[in-house]
Design brief:
The protein has 7 helices and 15 strands. It is an alpha+beta fold. Strands 3-4-5-6-7-8-9-10 form an 8-stranded antiparallel barrel. A 4-stranded mixed sheet has the order 12-15-13-14. The longest helix has 32 residues, at 248-279.
Length: 386
């Protein structure tokens, strides 16, 4: 018993050392995974099943296999230090039934033991939180206490086995554990007449549930290459920002040039309006302007034609308004300008019809570039409604 207590102390000391190490170093890694704090990644498990007792040559002195079967329950507390390596404290117990060919012994049995656990799935296949099945192996030691016919046996036992884990949800697992335990001969009933140096075996199969609490997953540990790439991206962004500051003056110049062009366009528009006022079209006449080489109605032109629509509506029902399309004098051929002027006149005609104007009050035609009604800059890109 003293040896066992000493062993437990050694394990506790090792765990405290790991805890201190994790608190002092924030970059503990295992295959690209950052270790969590000591209080993260704990598991609590319970389970139950059957066991079978054997010793040396199974068929030599033992009874039938079924005569050596007993029941077993177990509870475990596991701490994972990273996705691959963990430590477990388990208390297993129940009833074992070692049987000779003539006698069956029933004994209450308990064995607390400490195990090192390795997650083979994460080790071989890499860490994945969405994995459904995990294969884990363990090995450890503890104290086996057997009491058969009031003749108690206590001594060290060695445990090892396989844990098949099925992930049910983020916090809950289903476990099927296959375990073998080796014990000295003296820890089995003396009636078995086992000699010094011989050993007994207990094999078990249990099924149970595991609850995973506190932080359950693991954070990615970025490699130096990834960190360097991130820093390079930051440097590139900073360089781009510096370029943007250097180009600020050029952008200001472009903005000033654009403003000057806009001011000039406004001046040209005012000149066209003044020219139109000088021409003094007949009462009831209106002008709709177009862009260069275009017959598409502008938004401001559509707004203007709302006034034209109102003027037509206010006129006598038998009055007919003529829509005359024009084109620039000094650009394009005569044939092209004729077609362009017709398209402009037809566009105005169609829009007024869409707005509900009586088509019997409208007629349209194009005169091409035959009439230079606005000689300023040859801007005869207009339709006159009169």
């Amino acid at each position: 018993m003293k040896k066992f207590l000493l062993s437990i102390a050694i394990v506790a000391f090792s765990a405290s050392s790991v805890f201190a190490q994790e608190n002092s170093a924030e970059k503990l890694r295992w295959k690209g995974i950052m270790n969590n704090s000591f209080w993260s990644n704990w598991e609590l498990s319970i389970g139950g099943g059957i066991n079978a007792t054997g010793w040396n040559d199974w068929m030599k002195d033992q009874g039938d296999f079924s005569d050596n079967v007993g029941w077993q329950i177990e509870g475990s507390l596991t701490k994972w230090f990273n996705p691959i390596v963990g430590a477990r404290l388990q208390v297993a117990g129940g009833q074992i039934s070692p049987a000779t060919k003539t006698t069956t012994y029933e004994s209450k049995w308990v064995m607390p033991h400490v195990d090192a656990v390795v997650n083979l799935s994460n080790w071989i296949g890499g860490y994945r939180e969405d994995r459904v099945y995990y294969a884990k192996v363990f090995a450890g030691f503890g104290v086996s206490v057997v009491d058969v016919n009031d003749n108690a046996g206590t001594g060290f036992g060695f445990a090892s086995g396989l844990i098949n884990t099925f992930r049910l949800c983020k916090a809950l697992d289903l476990n099927i554990e296959l375990k073998s335990i080796l014990t000295p001969a003296r820890d089995l009933p003396v009636d078995l007449n086992m000699k010094s140096g011989e050993y007994g075996q207990m094999y078990s199969a249990t099924i149970g549930l595991t609850y995973r609490f506190n932080k359950r997953d693991w954070n990615k540990a970025y490699s130096q290459e990834e960190v360097d790439g991130y820093l390079a991206s930051i440097a590139a962004l900073e360089a781009g920002l510096a370029d943007a500051h250097r180009n600020e003056g050029k952008l200001a110049e472009r903005l000033a040039a654009q403003k000057a062009a806009t001011d000039q366009a406004l001046k040209d528009n005012e000149a066209l309006r003044a020219e139109l006022a000088k021409k003094k079209p007949a009462i009831g006449s209106s002008a709709v302007f177009f862009n260069f080489d275009s017959a598409r109605l502008l938004d401001r032109a559509k707004s203007q034609m709302q006034l034209i629509k109102e003027n037509i509506a206010a006129a006598p029902k038998d009055q007919v308004f003529t829509i005359v399309g024009h084109a620039d004098v000094k650009t394009g051929s005569a044939e092209y300008n004729q077609k362009l002027s017709e398209k402009r006149a037809k566009a105005v005609y169609d829009y007024l019809i869409e707005q509900g104007v009586n088509k019997d009050q409208l007629t349209w035609k194009g005169v091409g570039s035959t009439q230079n009604i606005f000689p300023i800059n040859n801007t005869n890109r207009v339709v006159i409604v009169k």
